[in-house]
Amino acid sequence: MKSAEFKPVTRAGNEFRWREADAYLFDIDGTLIVTRDLVHWNALHQAMLEVYGVNATIEGIPYHGKTDLGILRAALARAGVQGAAFDANLPQALEVVCREVQANASGIVADVCPAIHGLLVSLKSAGKLVGVASGNLQSVGWHKIEAAGLRQFFSFGCFSNFCELRAEIFRNAIAEARRQLGRAAKVCFIGDTPEDIRAARAAGAHIIAVGTGTYSYDELQALTPDLCISSCAELI
Length: 236
Known about the structure:
Blueprint: E1 9-11, E2 14-16, E3 23-26, E4 33-35, H1 39-52, H2 68-78, H3 83-103, E5 110-112, H4 116-125, E6 129-133, H5 138-147, E7 156-158, H6 166-181, E8 187-191, H7 194-203, E9 206-210, H8 217-221, E10 227-229
Parallel strand pairs: 3-6, 3-8, 6-7, 8-9, 9-10
Antiparallel strand pairs: 1-2, 4-5
């Protein structure tokens, strides 16, 4: 099958030559896939219950764009667990999240976002380095990607196991891309939240914002990413 041709995309008269990057780093939830299950949700709940003794959920927490560490911190702070009490038990809590997702991975229902498969095929066919930069914990993120049938496209991933801030994850991803490709490698992120845009800016990288998550095109465009699109179909 012939891969789709890369095309520059023009917004408001300004052409962002996104295809000239050497590495492309994707967020997961809302960018690559949308999950229709409670596997990750329940794993976070079980960690809070088992490790902190708090019967809390992430309901009402603005978790889109947050890392797993940040989500747990926000949910537990709302329940009164903060500071040293949170930090001391965090490693155990993260282990529980990973354990629960591993045990229930067969229940992950992941819908691939529009045109993602075609875009990934095009990038790989063009010899680009393709990776993941996600706020998920590593094993959680890979389970979601595997459930969507996309694992073969990604050479590496950077996750939130040791990073609570998304910008730190993005910096680590840039460092890994340049370790593999050289210090002059151009890196472009693809994400669906304002936090992805801010993190890319903080890391000094380009960002394509895509409105396939919970944020609209207009909300993302207001933060002036290098390119804002409704879906990745606009790229191919």
